[in-house]
């Protein structure tokens, strides 16, 4: 957001500066012509030029203030839109464990259809899917297939138009949003960090975590050496230059892995990272999948190839489910995506659905 504001300010400031320079050149040219004809004194021309130079500062500041006002108006509109959104209601704490069916899967979607406001076409169409309590499930498909919408439905960011979502055999309708999300950990493609130290960012989702637990997660994501090399270690304040983008992504991943949740959801967590960062994230996924459930959206073959189940989506529907070798044999879309490079180890593609 900050970079976009800067990009908007720079062209406007350049236009104002160009206009001022043009005005000075025009005054100088017209004044020189009048002086040459003897119709204006040189001192008068100099006075006009001094006036023009005096106005440069206020005009530039005015252009910057106009830009700031416009940015403020745009921000106020977005804030008003956020304020108009309905507030999630939290009821009394629901004991999910007491209602749990031991034989039920972790998450189950039954004929779920989801539509966004203002859209005539559903983003998900009669989707049925079972997420077991352990293992790695990868979701792939072309842009607009409904992958992110599927994760948003599991996270209860959106409510199904029809169908049912169950957690441990208990329908979402019987649970409040807090009860659902306490069982989930989520990592987005654009992962924010909170103001404070590295330690505060890592334990943000699990404040009661011990130092041993924190160190174990950092080792898993290969962050321990980089953080120990900092002057204050875990107590180093996060700034724009203290850590690289890949390290910030791994901190967000560490925050999610540290959280005691039944399901880890990753939405393009490896889309914009280097090879070493991706390898660390893949190791964390594999380690977590041994004891819990992991669901990832990814366009990199290295991220999804070893998944226990790969879900291929198209046009809001589940097209096929299987492992990599099975899908290469029986699913044309998956095979075409691999061959065409849409599932490529060296290329990340952005999810826009």
Explained architecture:
This protein is α/β, with parallel strands linked by helices and 353 residues long. It is 47% helix and 16% strand. It has helices at 2-36, 42-84, 96-99, 147-154, 177-181, 198-202, 211-220, 224-228, 245-258, 275-291, 301-304, 324-330, 332-340, and strands at residues 107-114, 124-131, 135-140, 162-167, 170-171, 184-187, 263-267, 293-297, 309-314, 317-322. The two termini are 20 Å apart. The model is unreliable at 1-9 and 345-353 (pLDDT under 50).
Number of domains: 2
What percentage of residues falls in helices of 4 or more residues? 40-55%
The CATH C-level class name of the largest domain: Alpha Beta
How do the strands of the widest beta sheet line up side by side?
A: 6-7-8-3-9-10
Name the features.
47% helix, ABC1_TM_dom, alpha/beta, 6-stranded mixed sheet, disordered C terminus, ABC-type oligopeptide transporter activity, 13 helices, elongated, 2 domains, 10 strands, disordered N terminus, Rossmann fold, 353 residues, 4-stranded antiparallel sheet
What layout of secondary structure does this protein have?
Elements: H1 2-36, H2 42-84, H3 96-99, E1 107-114, E2 124-131, E3 135-140, H4 147-154, E4 162-167, E5 170-171, H5 177-181, E6 184-187, H6 198-202, H7 211-220, H8 224-228, H9 245-258, E7 263-267, H10 275-291, E8 293-297, H11 301-304, E9 309-314, E10 317-322, H12 324-330, H13 332-340
Parallel strand pairs: 3-8, 3-9, 6-7, 7-8
Antiparallel strand pairs: 1-2, 1-4, 4-5, 9-10
């Amino acid at each position: 957001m900050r970079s976009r504001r800067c990009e908007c300010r720079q062209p406007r400031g350049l236009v104002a500066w160009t206009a001022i320079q043009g005005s000075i050149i025009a005054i100088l040219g017209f004044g020189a012509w009048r002086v040459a004809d003897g119709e204006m004194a040189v001192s008068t021309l100099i006075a006009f030029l001094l006036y023009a130079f005096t106005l440069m500062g206020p005009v530039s500041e005015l252009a910057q203030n106009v830009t700031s006002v416009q940015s403020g108006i745009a921000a106020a509109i977005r804030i008003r839109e956020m304020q108009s959104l309905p507030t999630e209601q939290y009821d009394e704490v629901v004991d999910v464990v007491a209602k749990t069916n031991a034989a039920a899967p972790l998450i189950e979607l039954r004929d779920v259809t989801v539509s966004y406001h203002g859209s005539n076409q559903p983003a998900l169409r009669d989707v049925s899917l079972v997420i077991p309590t352990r293992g790695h499930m990868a979701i792939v498909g072309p842009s607009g297939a409904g992958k992110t919408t599927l994760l948003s439905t599991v996270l209860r960011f959106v409510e199904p138009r029809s169908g049912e979502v169950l957690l441990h055999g208990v329908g979402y309708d019987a649970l409040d949003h807090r009860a659902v999300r306490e069982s989930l950990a989520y990592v987005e493609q654009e992962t924010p960090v909170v103001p404070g130290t590295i330690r505060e960012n890592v334990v943000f989702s699990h404040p009661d975590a011990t130092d041993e637990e924190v160190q174990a997660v950092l080792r898993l994501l290969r962050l321990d050496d980089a953080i120990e090399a900092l002057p204050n270690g875990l107590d180093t304040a996060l700034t724009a230059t203290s850590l690289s983008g890949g390290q910030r992504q791994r901190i967000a991943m560490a925050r999610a892995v540290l959280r005691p949740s039944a399901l880890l959801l990753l939405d393009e967590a490896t889309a914009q990272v280097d090879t070493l960062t991706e390898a660390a994230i893949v190791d964390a996924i594999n380690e977590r999948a041994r004891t819990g459930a992991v669901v990832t959206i990814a366009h990199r073959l290295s991220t999804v190839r070893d998944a226990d189940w790969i879900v291929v989506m198209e046009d809001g529907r589940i097209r096929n489910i299987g492992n990599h070798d099975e899908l290469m044999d029986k699913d044309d879309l998956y095979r075409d995506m691999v061959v065409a490079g849409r599932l490529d180890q060296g290329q990340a593609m952005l999810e826009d659905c």
